């Protein structure tokens, strides 16, 4: 391979590893800093066994057109690879069923956001909202993580809109010609090799929505504090520093700039974003290495940096990644091409009837039960069936659950490998807290769907939770054909 050299990891160093010791020296530490003997270039690694070669490249998800990052080594390794692995492919990211699920999971129909803030937090939020042109009606039903992202987007949108009028140099942002990052460039380049996602796309989409509430609130309060202290000068300096670190392959600097605050101030979010994902990525890399052939993996450069890096995990599991360099200077590479979305088919179906059952909590909680609503699906296709839409309205002595249609999504030919076995039902599991269902006297649980309503009297006697129909059930039908019961004494065992 022309102009190609390898910086090898010594086998002796691997023998010094103390796996699992939090205080132990990072066995991948020497792979993080670039070798000054080579031209500056983004970090790239290789992993080999007898019949497999895996190239790993640390990407930037957004770049500027003038950036010189693409080397002949990168092109040669990509050309000889059988599969290109990305964190997620655009075909997967454009799946309307996942986008809908993410959207539905991003809002809270229970307690409003404004009521969950302390007076000090609320005051800061309102100051930032005023600067960004937002009102509580825009944010109040969002989950905290989405409110944080919405605040950031509107804050920077307002700043950019008025940037040309700004006379204070510390508040005037640089003009940048931002384009799609490495992944976008590769996906729009007609490479002629299969592209696959290295992580489950659904986990990717729902990562923030699935965070515990306390971790989401940490993210929101951190975002508000950061934006209130923001200056264009400070923001531009950080972006410039990150870009320089990426172009130089300086992983420690990238880790500190990208992950340092998150690791220190938002440990829950950091755990979900880096260590937990890096474990899944490492598992996928090892799985491919155990096969045969050549693979090219492109993931965010931050996954190769820091105390929980993919490189460290590989070494601690007995593998030997090597950092590779090109002796040639990198060149610019960007894409102005549009990504043409794959053709997904969609349909919206209103169930003719729904079967109800009462189940223990999925997480084995003793203070929660699950109401499962199921309707049969008589379609045979390669795709996905969503749960029924629903909304919960709690009241003083009753609770009303509104249900709507479910969606079927037919996959395009690019996703035919994801078909799996045929789906026979649309199933919706609704977790309900016991203190919402039962009190000093029986409460009423009402189910509505397209003008039809069935009601149940909910009672708790001798550790038995009972849903007793208050009339003939015409639409929401108990699976037992009579009342539903659940023995609470067995919960948590």
UniProtKB/TrEMBL annotation:
Asked if the record carries the keyword Lyase, the reply is no
Matches recorded under InterPro entries: TraB/PrgY/GumN_fam, YbaP-like
Alphabetically sorted, this entry's keywords are: Signal
Recorded protein name is GumN family protein
| Leader sequence residues | 1-24
Asked whether the keyword Nucleotidyltransferase is assigned, the reply is: no
For this protein, the record's PANTHER family field holds: CYTOPLASMIC PROTEIN, CYTOPLASMIC PROTEIN-RELATED
Matching Pfam families, A to Z?
A: TraB_PrgY_gumN
Q: Which organism is it from?
A: Micavibrio aeruginosavorus (strain ARL-13)
Domain of life, per lineage: Bacteria
